[in-house]
Design goal:
Blueprint (H helix, E strand, L loop, with lengths): L2 H9 L5 H24 L5 H44 L6
Length: about 100
């Protein structure tokens, strides 16, 4: 899983922490979903397979939704700071 990040050092692109987080999250979602599908073929664990697949997909969607607010919040704050700096540079009042 981390081979891609290590290989990037040889191509001129350095690995970043967010890449590691995204790769780890993708691995976990794929693994849990695959385990759920395997449980679908077992008569005794059929219900648990459906529950595992649904809970993994729901948790993944909630995580993506929460991360989008976190990332957009940082971007909006940076945009506001740039706006304030520009207004101060031109001697104008900001609201």
């Amino acid at each position: 899983m981390y081979f891609v990040e290590i290989f990037q050092a040889f191509t001129g692109r350095l690995p970043e922490v967010d890449d590691l987080i995204a790769n780890t999250a993708g691995f976990l979602v794929g693994y849990l979903t695959a385990q759920g599908f395997l449980e679908l073929f077992d008569k005794k664990a059929y219900k648990y397979g459906i529950i595992r697949i649904l809970s993994t997909v729901i948790l993944f969607c909630i995580s993506i939704f929460a991360l989008s607010f976190w990332v957009n919040g940082d971007a909006l704050q940076a945009e506001e700071e740039a706006y304030v700096k520009m207004m101060e540079q031109y001697g104008m009042e900001h609201r």
